[in-house]
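tokens incoming
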């Protein structure tokens, strides 16, 4: 975007230069300034493209200062002389504020436009006072000052409104994310899982659907952890188990806390053997966990495969009845029906 604007600036300066030259109305000042500005834009373009250690925001500021410097200096130049009181060269100066508020960071735009305004007023005053009375000079300078302050206040207000709208949006996004995340474990909650399942479109299973497996992972005898070590320690165990499970799965697998001490993992496009191997790996990993005085934590895992069902609910039911079997057969085990 920035480099495209630099190209636009180069082309605009070249066009104005060409027009002024061909119509013969070019001032000696502009005849020298146009090529200097074009060369400066080209250098900044090259620096922005090829230099990795130059900060882009500094290049933005530099490009801006060249435009603002040119506009102010050419206007001042046109105000030199005894007939310059009614020069319209200041008409482009509003651009200095528009560009600053559009392309610089807000803080930088505020400080830069204050400097630009001061330079504009002082510069015009210094050249006008040479050939005109204090009253006439102040008339022109105050006129410029009022117009430019209006520019700055309007642009600042617009930018402030935009910043506030952006902040409100990011707050809404944050709250929306909170609604889908389990704050204790940092993984998806049941709502989040259901949203992801909906987005994946895995509700109805056809022969063309992508293959998936659902694991329901339930901590064994978790009530005893709470009873023996307290609810706070129980919470820590939940967080640690979630973190361990989360680390063990692939980025494309989906994990969430279904509720209480029950987690769900959805794996996509793995063979049943791979799913079983993963489940065993998860079970073993949890059995090796220890937290302060709490050890011997185990999980039971029930698996449902999508190729044995017609809907997601059926896959869930299969996983649930396999979990029940795992619990019945003594816990700390994995059950599935292939
Ligand atoms: N600390 C803590 N405990 C929770 C939380 N959610 C549910 N629990 C507890 O988890 C326990 C679940 O107990 P049960 O359903 O009897 O299951 P269990 O003791 O794990 O026994 P099995 O599942 O049959 O092996 C209950 O004591 C709940 O209070 C939570 O967010 N934090």
């Amino acid at each position: 975007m920035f480099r495209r604007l630099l190209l636009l600036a180069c082309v605009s300066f070249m066009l104005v230069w060409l027009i002024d030259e061909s119509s013969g109305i070019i001032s000696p000042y502009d005849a020298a300034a146009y090529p200097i500005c074009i060369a400066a834009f080209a250098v900044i373009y090259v620096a922005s493209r090829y230099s990795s250690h130059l900060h882009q925001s500094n290049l933005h500021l530099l490009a801006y200062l060249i435009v603002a410097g040119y506009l102010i200096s050419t206007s001042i130049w046109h105000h030199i002389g005894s007939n310059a009181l009614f020069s319209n060269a200041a008409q482009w100066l509003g651009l200095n504020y528009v560009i600053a508020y559009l392309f610089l960071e807000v803080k930088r735009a505020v400080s830069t436009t204050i400097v630009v305004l001061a330079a504009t007023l002082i510069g015009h005053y210094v050249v006008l006072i040479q050939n005109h009375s204090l009253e006439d000079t102040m008339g022109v300078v105050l006129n410029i000052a009022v117009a430019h302050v209006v520019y700055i206040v309007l642009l600042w207000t617009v930018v402030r409104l935009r910043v506030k709208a952006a902040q409100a949006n990011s707050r809404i996004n944050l709250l929306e994310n909170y609604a889908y995340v389990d704050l204790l474990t940092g993984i998806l909650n049941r709502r989040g899982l259901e949203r992801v399942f909906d987005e994946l479109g895995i509700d109805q299973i056809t022969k063309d659907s992508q293959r998936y497996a659902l694991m329901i992972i339930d901590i064994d005898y978790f009530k005893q952890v709470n009873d023996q070590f307290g609810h706070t320690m129980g919470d820590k165990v939940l967080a640690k188990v979630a973190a361990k499970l989360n680390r063990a799965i692939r980025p494309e697998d989906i994990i969430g806390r279904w509720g209480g001490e029950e987690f769900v993992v959805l794996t996509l496009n793995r063979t049943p053997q791979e799913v079983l191997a993963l489940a065993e790996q998860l079970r073993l990993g949890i059995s090796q966990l220890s937290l302060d005085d709490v050890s011997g934590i185990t999980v039971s895992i029930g698996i449902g495969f999508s190729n044995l069902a017609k809907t997601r609910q059926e896959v869930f039911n299969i996983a649930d009845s396999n979990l029940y079997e795992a619990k019945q057969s003594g816990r700390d085990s994995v059950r599935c029906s292939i």
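note: The two ends are 55 Å apart (CA to CA).
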